[in-house]
Sequence to fold (1284 residues):
Amino acid sequence: MCNNKVKDDFTELKHIIDETGHEESALISILHKTQEYYGYIPRQAQGFIAHELKIPASKVYGVVSFYSYFVEKPKGKYQISVCLGTACYVKGAADVLKRLESELGIKFGETTPDLKFSIAQTRCLGDCSNAPVLMINDKLYSKVSPDEIPLILESYKEEVSS
Amino acid sequence: MTSSSLKYSKDNTDKRLDYNSLRQLKEEAYKNLKKRVLKDDAIGINENGTFYLKGDYYEKQLRIALRNCGIIDPGNIEDSIATDGYKALADLLENNVSGQQIVDDMTRANLRGRGGAGFNAGRKWAEALSHEAPHKYIVCNADEGDPGAFMDRSILELDPHSVLEGMAIAGYAIGADKGFIYVRAEYPLAVRNLKIAINQAMEKGLLGDNILGSNFSFSIELRLGAGAFVCGEATALIESIEGHRGMPRNKIFRTAHKGLFQMPTVLNNVETLANVHMIMLNGVDWFRSIGTKDSPGTKVFSVVGKVLNAGLVEVPMGTPLTSIIYDISGGIKNNKKLKAVQTGGPSGGCIPASLVESTTVDFECLESLGSIMGSGGMVVMDEDDCMVDIARFFMEFTVEESCGKCTPCRVGNKRILETLDRITQGQGSEKDLPYLKELSEVIRDTSLCGLGQAATNPVLSTLRYFENEYISHVKNKRCMAKVCRNLLIYFVGEGCIGCGLCKINCPVKCIEGERKIRHIIDPEKCIKCGTCMEKCPVHAITLS
Amino acid sequence: MIDFTINGIEASVEEGTTILDAAKKYNIHIPTLCHLKLHDLNVENASASCRVCMVEEEGKNKMIAACSTRVKKGMRIRTDSIRAIRTRRMMIELLLSDHPKDCLICPKNGKCELQNLAADAGIRSLRCEGERRVCTIDDDSFSIIRDMNKCILCKRCETMCNEVQTVGVLTDVGRGFHTVVGTVFDRPMHSTTCTFCGQCIAVCPTGALTEVDNTADVWDAISSDKTVIVQTAPAVRVALGEEFGMEPGTVVTGKMVTALKNMGFDYVYDTNFAADVTIVEEASEFADRFKNGGRLPILTSCCPSWIKFVEHNFKELIDIPSSCKSPHEMFGSLAKSYLAEKLGKKPEDIVVVSVMPCVAKKYEAQRPELGNSGNSDVDIVISTRELARMIVDSTQDFVNLPDSSFDRFMGQSTGAGTIFGSTGGVAEATLRTAYEFLTGEELKEVNFTALRGFEKIKETTVNIGGTQINVAVASGLGNARKLLNDVRDGIKQYHIIEIMACPGGCIDGGGQPYMHGNTEILTKRMNSIYNIDNKKHIRQSHKNPEVLQLYNEYLGEFYGEKAHKLLHTHFYADRSEI
Fold:
């Protein structure tokens, strides 16, 4: 991951662990704080936590994968949900998704390296008459054609840099 | 209403209380609170000086666990002390009441676990007291996860000290030195208020070492859940506190014998603990005079769905269900007809309208109807709700939340959901129904933990009371409540003016028709998105 | 005693007995898939997760799990009621509905507990099919194949990996229907700290965990122009018979040699010979360290799982294991040098096949440092189970085969080489030789019985020439970890430590015939090992005539330069953390 925080030497994470405790029962509290700090739980951090708590890394991973609150991938500032409900699907939502993926260079479920965008697919957004639709955070875009994608994304890119 | 101003006067913070100073502080704090209450139109004062929330909705209830909610400032421990907070604990300590005595009283009170299982809390305490161990623990289960239920959240957010005091009393009774509150991470305000409350109680010497100058020491730690409904199950919760995946343990030992860190552990729910103070203060006989013989006390329900006034309702056990739905919650919205009441959340069952009349809310009655008290979720449904779809909805939740440890819950519930999916999509067959019933019963009787054991209650109870709806789904491929989209046919009626709006907006172009002539929908191509019906200016399109 | 009834029979058991154990006492077999209790090894998997052992308690609504419910006074249990039978069937059907059901081509075909259960219950169709978990098969390692599509989440493997072996590679990953037994970050086994002990394979009830099958490689080698040499480990001969219905513990050495010759191997040799060489080298190394102030204790190095465990977990102790290669590697190295010369062959024209009770040896054989001038010491490793399959495949009537003897030069062995197959055997064999090396006197009593048996950690002290030599033996990596922690922290001082990764030693190796929880089989294998030793005329490695011939004609002195080059190796402390 290109998140700069992850490349660090875990000074802050070490601090978190020292503060929370080195016993196994502190694991979930530590994971909460780790996610608060990084925005997600990087795998390198999981390895570091395992090392500090003297437990197998597989154990930490097993715990992270069990609780739905913990995520292993950073989510973007702008979450793009592409509706893949039946109406949108027949109106070409798959093409919209494909264009979106190629524009951003990521697959659905992933986040761009600069942490600005992530793509999720979603069940019916309840706006079938305007299919295909996509949503960026809370804003709905109707009757989207693949060619409109670059323009839509541009407005967010500028917003971010300003 | 009080605002949750969390400003707290620093004046007394360095002063740990003893029995006398607690009494003095109470007098002082009561005056302050009363002064505030007098200015508040929403709060009234009883003859005996206690406070209550004004209005029919509240006055028809009997608020014991919710006694302080909405009245005191949860961020100020003095408000809690003003309403006799920590007095029960102080009395027990000052009078050197034995653990055995407290446990006996609690057992006699028969305060049944408000989290769902309905087990006599005193008997749990008694077992934990009977085992010798280097450490014992009190765990407060605040992992309230039922969708639409928020009883515990309200108590934690609005009256956290009632829970802390309940835990301290339990700790004193069984000889525990440490307590944990396992609270959902999704309740940030509850977490914040609990943190504040614990700190204030520590500062005042109401928690921590030598509480109120006695020999009793008891501290409380907060642990956050991480998005796993199954952690509401006692042993899964314990696993989670220990830092593991929240998967239930095998049941060879009871938690009161070998629980957290393999030590005797009492695990009570938030509402249960909030009752302890009142039982200790007012006596067992007072408590038993409320509710029914086998279900004493009150219960808080989270009444949601198609009622006029949704919200938390606390009533004595044994209260008729109709009085909750009609007298307190204002009846069904939009003058629709009541169809069923679902109690007990995803683990509960549906009570049909025909039986609602004779239903009372106590453990025995609800169980005899195939539902449960559960933690107090209550969803009121009207004629627009499809019972098969409701069962499917709850199964979807359970499958999502199953931990995956035991076969019946992991695979069985998945098969139930798949079968219900097929039925609601019009692909069910009559053979599915006996299979659903048999599999649901096996899952109920064989699952490792309460989540799995109760998972199929929504299916079993709807099969029992609404079998006709299942039959109409599988045999006639019809959903009478018009909920299951795949079973619906969109039909252009005689009122059609041939404007063409439906035709233009149809995403799959399955509507044909000349201008000014009645249009026709091709049911084979129709994806049942409902756009045409929405767009029709004369409401000529109907569902059948 | 607790009185109760089971299927109407008046019964009585000790307090604390589970219904499952109580039923056994009355010859009632309650099937289970997850429960596993290995009495002698103190291992129990009590996850109570498969729910196949559900029984009915008369008058109660809920069914109860026999494996995790203790008998209470007055209980009336039924395992034979219609409800109990139907429930069991339903549970099996559910498991099958999430199973590939490709039994005919499954490596576990015929040995699968789920398959047997389905057969016993007479399942002919499933009332409910549905989504199945789809997992990528991990066949990247040299030892273990993980096909999680076949996993029923009994968690026996996790118990072995995490609690017994403390290796900590396996964990539940995910939740609910999609839970799988996985590894850290879903890595393939070869990228984890897995030691390939194979204890997970030994307990897996289905085909989810199996050994990498190298039988085809063996047939290929035999059908090639190369000279194919096979060696058999000490623990194989006391277990192979089980695969042909023979009484556990039957010694089938002669039949095994005949079978191998019939299969077309050019020469059939004994790893026990190499074990004798190992002892000569290891005892010399110990004597050297002991006399010259080298680092002690010396740790045995014949178990590749154990070596990998040290490399991952005890970097600070990396220089204390003996530098000896394991016996089958020594054999391979000598086969491609000493024996090659004798046979007039080039090393590259020789293929060495090892028949081992072990799956870690498959991985070990691929370690690049274990070879000479580009020739790997050992080319192919097959397990006892694989050998049995090949014997069947080649239509041999194993039980009625005549006996044959191992071939000359590397086929003779002593009792000391034999006991390598059992926990404590290597240490005992080392003492039998080291004593005479250090004192120059004859050892009167060669039996060191304190080092025998299934105890987790065994200790003894032996007076050698006036010095008290402390010896410790551990089997099972969890026990090894405890022992090594004590050594590292200075709590315990030893001179010699023997460690075998599998509980009980190689007789319980991950490549042995499946025991299905019956540890009596293990006791019988162990007894047979010591019986072979007892009957041997020569019971000390340094008195093996073929070993002496080897040193006289080829290697020169014990622990000398040539021996070093061919028989010793080195270990790596820089394996990755995770």
About this structure: The first strand of chain C starts at residue 2 and ends at 6. Chain C touches chain A at residues 162, 167-175, 182-185, 192-193, 577-578 (CB under 8 Å). The radius of gyration of chain C is 25 Å. Chain C is about 35% helix and 15% strand.
